[in-house]
């Protein structure tokens, strides 16, 4: 059969993701800090969008702050101008807060505030820069400095050397500017750098690291040195009795040696490799007032947006080409404010639904956390599950029982004998409580914890499930928790 071209009509439907719709979806899943960055970026890129001056902010009744709820089109220039003049950031957040907005003036300004942000920061020294500084002040020769730099380049985040002396000598030889060094010369520099601060850095393994520290502190007790050099694995696995028999010492004497070893640092580079703490700014606050829970969205730092009146009034006087651009920027600005309003409205409704489902948690704590899935909240507020998933991503809420991510309230269920259910997070909290109050000399086994849960909750939970929850909490097994002293 021959090939031929044909024309035919076909009717089909497809979803077109417009840029505006993509922006609205993206706003849902942005964290608070990401949202602030995004709004600031839009303020820079859109000349029609501006932040309303703080001194012009006035209090308005809540009924006057309601944002439009029906679908509107912006093809009519007069409608666009009217929206631009009345659309304010304050309007979008007002009805979602139970506290009045207060304009806080700056009473004073410290001299530091006149400086740039970068000028007020100092970089935390890295392990590499700290060691390089000591190396160059140690009076080492030029060759030793080059060897030392190569050694520093082969350290991991904990300060351990991940290359042999032979490998480092070979690396020096194949550098753009070849450096000739023997393995003995490299080993000599390694031993010298192990005495740098932090003590024990550039060691090849924990045993060598601890031995360097014992030598530097003049702790030359033969038993102590032997415990570090030969029995670190036995100490890790708490095989204390065979060790006490071998050295013919009592358990009390062995404990004294262990106390000394615990004062040493097996990870000398950890103080430099540790990540900076991540501070969380809650998106929502939930307070209890007169037996009821009040939800307040966090508005701190969020600018009040409006379309610049100057540009709105100048639209009529511009030519057709500029007028088209101005109208496009106006639509973009108004759509952004509508999207921000929709984001806050969705976040408020989702939090309201979570409070209804998890009221016992807000009153009594994590042990009363109920099973909850995205579909429950989606059905409650008549939204799609994907919307609930996006709005709960990277969002935090401050509750009477601590700050939690919104996804914390969604957890799987365990069936009880009476047909009811209990949340997995509640079970984890109970396991943590049992282990926290156990006898350190007789720690609770996973099987014993399963029996205790069955007695208190009437739930049939397997030992392996207890082990899975315990591991998720970062708690060691009973054999590793046991203390004999």
Automatic annotation (TrEMBL):
Domain RNA polymerase sigma factor 54 DNA-binding, chain residue ranges per copy: 324-483
InterPro entries per the UniProt record, alphabetical: RNA_pol_sigma_54, RNA_pol_sigma_54_core-bd, RNA_pol_sigma_54_DNA-bd, RpoN_core-bd_sf
Keyword 4Fe-4S on entry: no
Example GO biological process: DNA-templated transcription initiation
Basic and acidic residues biased stretches: 58-73
Disordered: annotated segments: 49-79
A Pfam family recorded for this sequence: Sigma54_CBD
GO cellular component, as recorded: DNA-directed RNA polymerase complex
Keywords: DNA-binding, DNA-directed RNA polymerase, Nucleotidyltransferase, Sigma factor, Transcription, Transcription regulation, Transferase
Any one GO molecular-function label of the UniProt entry: DNA-binding transcription activator activity
Domain RNA polymerase sigma factor 54 core-binding per the UniProt entry, residue ranges: 117-311
Family: Belongs to the sigma-54 factor family.
Name of this protein: RNA polymerase sigma 54 subunit RpoN
Highest classification ranks of the organism: Bacteria, Pseudomonadati, Thermodesulfobacteriota, Desulfovibrionia, Desulfovibrionales
